[in-house]
């Protein structure tokens, strides 16, 4: 398949060369033929390149198959008796609360996930009580507001 394409490209270039001999020798005709030759050569190169690419074995995009692996770092929290740096996690939450919470949410984190990691249970309850959550219906069928540390951290944007 590859050879047929190369041969047909060679024949097309030869035909153009023969046509060029019989055309006028004016500058316009010469530049026209130069443009035709250039476009024909580019088309030939593109065809040959495409056929060469398609004739190769299938390309595997799996980096692990090629022996490329993500680097393994000796993280401290992965050791048997080690834990996270709780003070750093607490500082990270403080930065989120003061800077990031204006635009970004922790809507995948529940208040209860912070208990024992960065805050005490009393601190988490106090933070959760700053927000009211719609709950219900009650016995009468009305919706009501309640603070609850079991709920998710609210989103900064109010969704309609």
Give the secondary structure arrangement, pairings included.
Layout: H1 2-22, H2 27-55, H3 86-98, H4 121-129, E1 133-135, E2 144-146
Antiparallel strand pairs: 1-2
Helix pairs in contact: 1-2
What would you say this structure looks like, in words?
The protein is mainly alpha-helical and 160 residues long. The chain has 2 domains: 2-55; 84-146, no CATH class. Helices cover 45% and strands 4% of the residues. It contains 4 helices and 2 strands, in the order H-H-H-H-E-E. It has helices at residues 2-22, 27-55, 86-98, 121-129; strands at residues 133-135, 144-146. It has a two-stranded antiparallel sheet. Helix 1 (2-22) packs antiparallel against helix 2 (27-55). The radius of gyration is 35 Å and the shape is elongated. The model has no long low-confidence stretch (mean pLDDT 75). Its cofactor is heme c. This is Ubiquinol-cytochrome c reductase cytochrome c1 subunit. Heme c binds at residues 100, 103-104. Pfam families: Cytochrom_C1. Residues 87-160 form the Cytochrome c domain.
């Amino acid at each position: 398949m590859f050879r047929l394409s190369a041969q047909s490209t060679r024949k097309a270039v030869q035909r153009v060369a023969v046509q060029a001999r019989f055309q006028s020798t004016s500058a316009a005709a010469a530049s026209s033929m130069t443009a035709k030759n250039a476009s024909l050569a580019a088309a030939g190169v593109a065809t040959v390149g495409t056929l060469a690419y398609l004739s190769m074995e299938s390309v595997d995009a799996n980096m692990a198959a090629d022996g490329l692996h993500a680097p393994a770092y000796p993280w401290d929290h992965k050791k048997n008796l080690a834990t996270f740096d709780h003070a750093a996690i607490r500082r990270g939450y403080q930065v989120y609360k003061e800077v990031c919470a204006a635009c970004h949410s922790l809507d995948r984190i529940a208040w209860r996930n912070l208990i024992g990691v960065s805050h005490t249970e009393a601190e988490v309850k106090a933070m959760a009580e700053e927000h009211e959550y719609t709950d219900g219906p009650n016995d009468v069928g009305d919706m009501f507001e309640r603070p609850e540390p079991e709920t998710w951290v609210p989103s900064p944007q109010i969704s309609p």
